[in-house]
């Protein structure tokens, strides 16, 4: 019997894409969403100011994450390129002011966008100077599979992230997350 850290379901998890017992039958979360719950609990503190907000890019389990982040005092904005899981928006051209979000969640998205450099630059622009981007990107794999436009090596991904962020890695089970703070320049 398994327990879902996201919705609290206890019971037998479903098979998904050839993997046994990985999908919660209640909230449809997979390992990465459940691991993200622990990453949030360990790395996100209570909102210090009213109005602090989280941007969740292409969210899975939107309702559950909105509820979880509300417990930390965060507002919640979800975006999706097709508008099915949030407001319709592209992370390559975000219609938000600079420094808008204190927290950004972006899991398994960069490999799908046309211009990953532009997307990371936009995420850095809308992330508050003291904010946190939690990023997850599959490393390795097959280009074209599941709509992936590119595959990343660990070194290539870290070089790309390093253009706009200082980062640290945290791992939960087999899930690897990059905890990113934007690089702030003090001049022109």
Would you kindly provide a written description of the structure presented here, covering whatever features stand out?
By secondary structure, the chain is α/β, with parallel strands linked by helices. It has one domain: Vaccinia Virus protein VP39 (Rossmann fold, 3-Layer(aba) Sandwich). It is 22% helix and 31% strand. The strands form three sheets. The chain has a seven-stranded mixed sheet. The longest helix is centred in the N-terminal third of the chain and has 13 residues. The N and C termini lie far apart (57 Å). The mean pLDDT is 90.
What is CATH's topology name?
Rossmann fold
User: In what order do the strands lie side by side in the largest sheet?
Assistant: 7-6-5-8-9-11-10
> What is the terminal-to-terminal distance?
57 Å
Proper CATH architecture:
3-Layer(aba) Sandwich
- Shape by Cα distribution: globular
Unreliable parts: none
Instruction: Look at the structure and name the CATH superfamily.
Output: Vaccinia Virus protein VP39
Beta fraction: 25-35%
* Main sheet makeup: 7 strands, mixed
Short overview:
The protein is an alpha/beta fold and 188 residues long. It has four helices and eleven strands, in the order ββββαβαβββαβαββ. Strand 10 (165-172) and strand 11 form a beta hairpin.
Structural key phrases:
188 residues, alpha/beta, Rossmann fold, seven-stranded mixed sheet, two-stranded antiparallel ribbon, 11 strands, 31% strand, globular
Write the SSE topology.
Blueprint: E1 2-3, E2 10-11, E3 14-16, E4 19-23, H1 31-43, E5 53-57, H2 62-71, E6 75-80, E7 87-88, E8 101-107, H3 116-126, E9 127-136, H4 154-161, E10 165-172, E11 175-182
Parallel strand pairs: 5-6, 5-8, 6-7, 8-9
Antiparallel strand pairs: 1-2, 3-4, 9-11, 10-11
